[in-house]
UniProtKB/TrEMBL annotation, chains A, B:
The keyword DNA-binding applies. It holds the Pfam family MarR_2. PROSITE patterns: HTH_MARR_2. It comes from the Bacteria. SMART domains: HTH_MARR. The keyword DNA-binding applies. Residues 1-145 form the HTH marR-type domain. This is MarR family transcriptional regulator. InterPro entries: HTH_MarR-typ (IPR000835), MarR/SlyA-like (IPR039422), WH-like_DNA-bd_sf (IPR036388), WH_DNA-bd_sf (IPR036390). Keywords: DNA-binding. GO terms for molecular function: DNA binding; DNA-binding transcription factor activity. GO terms for biological process: response to stress.
Amino acid sequence: MQKHRSINHASAPDGGLADALVTSAFVTMAVVSRLGAEHDLSLSMVRLLGILADRRPRMTELADYLGLEKQTLSGLVARAEKKGWVARAPNPDDGRATDVFLTPEGTKLVRRLHAQGREALAPLTGALAPEDQQALERLLRRLLAARAAA
Amino acid sequence: MQKHRSINHASAPDGGLADALVTSAFVTMAVVSRLGAEHDLSLSMVRLLGILADRRPRMTELADYLGLEKQTLSGLVARAEKKGWVARAPNPDDGRATDVFLTPEGTKLVRRLHAQGREALAPLTGALAPEDQQALERLLRRLLAARAAA
DNA sequence: TATTGTTATACTCTATAACTATA
DNA sequence: TATAGTTATAGAGTATAACAATA
């Protein structure tokens, strides 16, 4: 394995919260992406499973939330179904709609991913003192609470 | 446009910094992704251009940093070159290596993206009081400083 | 021999368009 | 008519494998 110069930062050098947010997003996504790859899961699949952890949405809701077209989601869910992680059932209130939810096996997979995700991010999160970790989490959650307006 | 129930959060409900980090990463990436799409740019292309904003790496460095295989990067750079945003030149010190850098047009595009990115994220960042914005940026940068170990 | 980079090929993911069924 | 979802079909993006050139 040959060593060459390495790149040590990713965003514009002048700073700004937006830059820090985008850079940390790329770094975090890289970790999640790598974790997903270990299980042969695409980033969308990881996210799909994560969303279903505590919800039972219909297809259109899922597509909107994931930012995917409904046809694209059909394929993603079909693949997940084939793997045995999710199942579909007709919505009792609307004959046109289909609800999606995790199977027991899917639930197990999500739990495993969740645990491994925390572990994989530990080198980052662990760099902060406990009170800074709490402060960061609080600030991020406040930020996220505003995203309905975005 | 029909309204249906919407999903209001993306990660496990029990919290934890890792969850908040992943959720905010997905949300941030969605904003960046949408911005990129407006310019017909993939997420990888946005990131490539962003990295080149203040660097002139060789292909292998870029591939490592982006987490892409060198062949994949060849294609990405070729597409960017075709669009006139980047150029390649032989590395003066190593006859095997190729350096990549932004063209003037690429630089203009990156500046535009940067400005639009800040604007697109404003609904999120603006939800925090100025001192909280500073605190969040400081915490994120401290987190990122640790990622060499990850 | 090892490393840098490109080309050839195949697979995954996503979107556009056309269709069926229910409201 | 409008909405929910699926099924083609096509294009972008990525990886695996094989190759050419330089160290």
